[in-house]
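Our collaborator T.R. sent over the components below with a one-line note: 'Predict the complex.' Nothing else. No constraints on interfaces, no templates requested, no preferences about which chain binds where. So this is a plain run: every listed entity goes in together, and whatever single assembly comes back becomes the starting point for the next discussion.
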Amino acid sequence: MSHILTATAAQLAARIAQGDLSAVEVTQAHLDQIAAVDGAVHAFLHVDRERALAQARAVDDARRAGDTLSPLAGVPIALKDVFCYAGAPTTCGSRILAGWVPPYDATATRRLLDAGLVILGKTNMDEFAMGSSTENSAYGPTHNPWDLDRIPGGSGGGSSAVLAAYESPLALGLDTGGSIRQPASVTGTVGVKPTYGGTSRYGLVAMASSLDQPGPCARTVLDAALLHQVIGGYDPRDSTSINAPVPDVVAAARLADVAGMRIGVVKELGGEGYAPGVEQRFHEAVEALRGAGAEVVEVSCPHFDYALGAYYLIMPSEVSSNLARFDAMRYGLRVGDDGERSAEEVMNLSRGRGFGDEVKRRIIIGTYALSSGYYDAYYGSAQKVRTLIAGDFARAFQVADVLVSPTTPTTAFRLGERVDDPLAMYKADLCTIPSNMAGNASASFPVGLAPEDGLPVGFQVMAPPMADDRLYRVGAALERLLPALVPPRLPGSLAGGEASR
Amino acid sequence: MSVELMEFGEAMERFDPVLGLEVHVELNTVSKMFCGCSTAFGAAPNTQTCPVCLGLPGSLPVVNGKAVESAIRIGLALGCSVATWCRFARKNYFYPDMPKDYQISQYDEPIAFDGSVEVEVDGVVHTIPIERAHMEEDTGKSVHVGGATGRIHGADYSLLDYNRAGVPLIEIVTKPVRGTGSQAPEVARAYVTYLRDLLRSLGVSDVRMEQGSLRCDANVSLMPKGTTDLGTRTETKNVNSLRSVERALRYEICRQAAVLAGGGTVTQETRHWHEDGGYTSAGRSKEEAEDYRYFPEPDLVPIAPSDDWVATLRATLPEAPGVRAARLRQAWSFTEREYGDVVNAGAVDLVAATVEAGAAPAAARKWWLGELQRRANEAGVELADVGMSPAQVAGLQGLVDLGVVNDTLARQVIDGVLAGEGEPSQVVSSRGLTVVSDTGALESAIDRAIEANPDVAQKIRDGKVQAAGAVIGAVMRELKGQADAAKVRQLLLAKLGVEPT
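Returned assembly:
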């Protein structure tokens, strides 16, 4: 039984810095836990044991040499399998990238390594980040540690499950329409989608370039903030990166004070289609914030009703172009190269075999939406909706400092429940998509268990661009005001003691 | 395959050609359009690549500011308006030598648009309207191995070289050029020549057609005389020299005229120019033209050149080639033909600098287009890289003017300069190349030559003065060229008692 596993990243870093714990011990404890529970959870696609231990040793050596350690040095982390990490396979949950090993590091990966974090491995995800359950992974689904028969959310289900299963105290995700926040919601963990341009996209295999944003996943708000601080900030390799200081998210997480803050409840994100337990815990959380001195107002964002439809035009359009490069010419799966077939035939066969149904569905939709004669009606109209959504946000932020809603309409659904119903699957992102469309900051924080099924409920907070610190103020306040969520103990789990806050 | 051709004169009696020229210019920036890789020509395959220009998953483009600067200067020099705000767009199509399977280009928002230039053919001035100049990235290069033609059809296999992928290109597109009549092929050639000179004077490109840094796609269609509706056009590629621009268009005009006169229709298609055979053949048919599904490149931010920047760049524009040509031709007292030869040799700047350094224009022209051109050809280098500077050429001519060396000796001086023996005057002294002006030495050499050639001497005495060359040659050989041939001739004739003619 190990208390290391239930400790927060901040606690682990402090104890490593003090010499109470070695980074190697911490890393080994997590590798052991992965060995013990990941057979049931299947959150990892690749575990990088040797390098992780070597990185941990380097941190211990640096400490012994008297070097000043960065705030998360020696803390293990898992990467969603879209982050390039030189020398480790990167599949994006797809057969088409089976065996591909990137020769370079993503900017986020590099910043983790520079800050002394220990990379445990790569986590499972829906293929190319398309899905809300990880069931679209070519390598099989991940199971929710709260109930192994249920989905861990998606696309970043692996990165949230590793937290709830105590396989890692930290993870990185990529959020295009909710892929960090919805998994956080259904696993009772914290997930943050920073302001678009606040974290570098360089080295993340793109799904939809204008929507994708990498962000931190953690069990506590402070841990998420510490990780945000490490990966955030300007990167000259990403032209859409914002050249401004990272908002002081760590100070905000420590402040945990909402007194005087204006909290806007979005009228359109609730009501019909939302599970009763989700609504109940959401409203209780709003009341808790009011009790802590926040001013609660209701705001209307009428164009949010069109967000899902517009998203499913813009995102597939970009997908159809971004995924064109998987053509079997330079890397990845190659099918039918028998010396007789033309390059074009090999491309077609490889793409036919390499991509799963959901990916193909979106490539086809996007190709259609961008076609000559349809562009204005589909892609063009969707971009106009996007502008209207940004307008709704701008108006709402005149009367509220942050907007709030449930993160996703339901708790974790059962594996298999929505696989044959893409539209039902898409609705899991109903509340999270508007922030991607507008490019602002957004996060999901756990606010209790739904009475009807005992599963975690997530609370979404949305803040104006580059006001990411407000997310952490609200999240940390909720964490202080509400009881902690403790996932059930998994068979064979080595985690012991109460989870730390 | 026999192709019906109409005689050009007849074709011109029955049809009016309409031209459209698309010129691709590779910029000579040090690095590529969207990454830091070198653009140097001729490196070993795939040695000038990185994750960005290979289109590896996760990589992102960053715009080369120098390329934008060149694009704006080109636009200004073509009399275009420069966009105050423009974007890149993705042009989507699959091809093995295109790393991302889309090309980053510009679509409906080019950096420069609506310009015009004037070219002159046999005293007739033609205005060429410019539609646009836009920025894009070059593709990689496919090398098709096996098969007869070196083209993809029938090849055993193909090799891909991505060194060129991502090299900055400017595409300059004309509007339809009407009213050129039977001068159409020459106008096209004159236009491409004009662009070459303009781009060279801007210093933005090597403009070497044989290396592909200036590429021309020549479009032409025919209208029956007296009509104004545009006919169906063909686009001829692989036009790799100024001469082939003219030849390819002349061929296409004759071919299309025969098709139309025979009651047929011209197929809208891409045609391939065969320089050796002097004909075009059908390539890709535009009927099955691909839909490129252009949309704004989401990985890049818009470009908005400030008025100040554009004004600053405008101030750096060199004198327009036409204006400069008129000025220099007059200053140098060259005939149109003489000046044209200098232009075609790419020696305008060299001659100008040599004149600047003190040489007479005719002498400067003689050295650069004669002896030095020959040396450059032998060495396979550009004239400017031959190894002798304009100042050295002027210095050499100074020695000739002073009578220190004659033309024969001057060639030996060039040998010395090219061999790195220093300035012309140093070569003269180190090699001992001064003209022998000691009359005694000359006379004894002449005596020996007369003695050795008694028959020739007798002929001269008999009045056959033109035979003197053989004896003069013998004298010059003996003196290793270090004599003034006119002086030798004068002394020889005096000795033989013949009046100089």
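Summary for T.R.: The CA atoms of residues 241 and 256 of chain B lie 22 Å apart.
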